[in-house]
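Task card 7
Instruction: Convert sequence to structure tokens.
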Amino acid sequence: MKQAQVFVEKRLAGLLTEDDMGYEFAYDNDYLASVDPKPVSLTLPLSDEPYRNNVLFPFFDGLIPEGWLLDIAEQSWKISARDRFSLLLACCKDCIGNISIVPFNGKETADE
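Output:
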């Protein structure tokens, strides 16, 4: 099982998980209760129920680089283009926009 923390504007918004059953994204309860929480994307509106899918959610998949930058990531980290979750973890800590994807290690890590 692989997990990643999803940050919106450097605030922990939720947890993305890959396991044998597919993918799950769940918003953090503290984030939902905070002042002015923003959804991660229009396709993942704020909800206290987790989202589940057999494939990586298109929003997260769209954060992964393409073309020559994907080639560099594959070669540098020896990650297959088919391992979308590992590419997301390797490439999307500091991506364009207000979203950050950080491998989960038991603590908030957006500012590290």
